């Protein structure tokens, strides 16, 4: 735990601003009193925080704090789903302790009891790295009333300073975010429109989406924040109403985030040609932008909308119930959390479809529609015994997706090869739990059994698990499947047909023929347990990022295959 007052600096990925432990902050110089940022130059920004706007500045600051013995924590912006032992998996909102940040793309950190690499772009560094001790304000004896009073006073001042830090981070990140949006609109989009021979209207719509609408909305939002910002005493600022008044406006991010995967693919195709790489770099230099490629700039709106609930949660933590802004901050946190949750859920599903497509092309004898035509998520998998109408037992491997249950048979010699045996439409099925004993429909004695009954044909499908615990997992999984289908319908969660087709096409191109099974899977790189401080030659993760569609701004890694064995499918579910 970091001792009070030891932290010399706080920062954030977007603002990269410098804040001292005594509450002083270097001026941002991004907007005037009216919330206008039109006169800002790159030099102005560098003068505001010269170290942190330069490449590597943030990593240098983090490592300085770590080397001084301070605990540095970050919060996950969204889920990081991984099958690689060298990578740290986490969910949105999880806290990760940063242990090493020398590499700008991949940091070494600890979550729970595991240490591993994780993508830096997936996290937000906490503004207040110091956690107040629960015992710092303890009950004192009558003789120590004065000392207790002084301690409470220090506690109150410290909490005010913590709130000041968060308020300043929100304001500073918002100002820098406006500059990033302006750089995209004026530095990239405006120049692209001038070069009609290089870009079609459709291409620009795909790459930039509704970024101009977001820029216009965020400028108004920043002006609202500036009006509520108390420059003299930031901890007294009441900004919660700004989020609530603009709550509906944040809905425009849904369109941008839905469009972003296609933007990444379109941009990746253009970047294969040297003239486009040179063009975008020239745009960056002409606009005097910081040293981030266009894919990084286009990712900032996705990061921003997911960062709001984390910022508001930290602000709420340091806002007393007596504060005039407490109720608004609490309501704003819930509202922005719901927005970010929807985006994070969509991103998780987009991560899933590539894996599911690669799984399907490995199945021998696949029949009928592609699995992605109706499904986008694997919920559960495992072995069950299927009992036929004639009373015969069939050992099968089952995969429960949203809307359908797929049955496969293992090869007798090569247990990693599966043959397609059929599927059931879960939308038409009713789940029935069976007690141990004789089942009247099949006239058989069963144990650890359940059945699915068709609502349209009344046909019965009987299944038996090896253990009671396995049966319980399947019952829960079937309930989860129905719940997730309903949630997807309520949230309007859909994956476009183009994205599904592209996932299948990419899976077929990887060389996983339907009859090849898994004999060509490369061996996973050995797990390296040594911390990079002690072993500087440690290698970075080499697997494909699980987050494909948001991944242009994520570090690039060599391609690898999907699952080494089907028994590892279960960690894929959330």
Automatic annotation (TrEMBL):
It holds the Pfam family SH3_1. Residues 377-483 form the PH domain. GO terms for cellular component: cytosol; ruffle membrane. Residues 162-346 form the DH domain. It is found in: Cell projection, Ruffle membrane; Cytoplasm. Keywords: Cell membrane, Cell projection, Cytoplasm, Guanine-nucleotide releasing factor, Membrane, SH3 domain. One of its GO terms (molecular function) is guanyl-nucleotide exchange factor activity. The keyword Cytoplasm applies. InterPro entries: DBL_dom_sf, DH_dom, PH-like_dom_sf, PH_domain, SH3-like_dom_sf, SH3_domain, SOS1_NGEF_PH. PROSITE patterns: DH_2, PH_DOMAIN, SH3. Residues 134-157 are annotated as: Disordered. It comes from the Eukaryota. GO terms for biological process: filopodium assembly; lamellipodium assembly; regulation of small GTPase mediated signal transduction. Residues 69-128 form the SH3 domain. This is Spermatosis associated 13. The gene is SPATA13.
